[in-house]
Amino acid sequence: MIKNSFISVISQEEKKENRGSVEFQIVSFTNKIRRLTSHLELHRKDYLSQRGLRKILGKRQRLLSYFSKKNRVRYKELISQLDIRESKTR
User: Fold this and answer.
1) Where are the domains of the chain?
2) According to the model, what pLDDT value does residue 2 have?
3) In terms of CB atoms within 10 Å, which of 13, 16, 20, 31 comes out highest?
4) Number of H helices, E strands in the chain
5) 15-22: which pairs have CB atoms within 8 A and are 24 or more residues apart?
6) Please, what's the b/e burial string for 29-56 (b: 16 or more CB within 10 A of its CB; e: otherwise)?
7) What is the pLDDT of residues 59-77, one digit of tens each?
8) How many Cβ atoms are within 10 Å of 18's Cβ, its own excluded?
9) Can you give the pLDDT at residue 19?
10) For residue 81, what are the contacts with CB-CB under 8 A and spacing of at least 6?
């Protein structure tokens, strides 16, 4: 039924040291998004979870745009590791 496809891109040692880093936050938000998405496949009318998912998506989007401006090479690597689409630029 539910796939547990959580990502461990960053090693355990790095997680303890760099919890405030942009990369760690993006990975954390991606894990939350995947978990909420699988929850919403079963519970379609859970509107509070839908709202939470939209808020987390917005936060991750802002972090990704900041990270792409700050370090484009690492951004491309992270996008490919997480298997998410590149954000649209305005």
Assistant:
1) 21-80
2) 46
3) 31
4) 4, 0
5) 22/63, 22/66, 22/67, 22/70
6) bbebbbebeeebeeeeeeeeeeeebeeb
7) 999 999 999 999 999 999 9
8) 13
9) 82
10) 7, 9
Residue 63, burial from CB neighbour count under 10 angstroms (0-12, 13-18, 19+): middle
Alpha-carbon distances of 3 from 18, 31, 33, 79, rounded to whole Å: 27, 12, 13, 21
What's domain 21-80's superfamily in CATH? S15/NS1, RNA-binding (1.10.287.10)
Distance separating alpha carbons of residues 81 and 31, to the nearest angstrom:
13
Cβ atoms 53, 36 nearer than 8 A: yes
User: What's at 55, amino acid-wise?
Assistant: K
- 88 pLDDT band (50/70/90 cuts)? confident
Nearest in space to 56 (alpha carbons), one of 28, 21, 89: 28
